[in-house]
Design brief:
The chain has 50 residues and is mainly α. The chain has one domain. The chain has two helices and no strands. The longest helix is centred in the middle third of the chain and has 17 residues. The chain is flat, with a radius of gyration of 13 Å. The two termini are 21 Å apart.
Length: 50
């Protein structure tokens, strides 16, 4: 994943962001939402924002 959070002292905290995504994907899976659906949703939103 090439996106990251930036900490207070400027260090990149990609692990925190990755863990957030893992948590969200696991929660979505429990609700019956597949990762492909989430990717498609964000891709559609990104295209609309452009």
């Amino acid at each position: 994943m090439d996106k990251s959070n930036q900490g207070e002292i400027g260090e990149l905290q990609t692990v925190d962001l990755d863990m957030e995504w893992v948590y969200l994907l696991l929660k979505a899976k429990k609700q019956g939402i597949h990762a492909d659906e989430i990717r498609r949703f964000f891709n559609d939103r990104t295209l609309k924002a452009m």
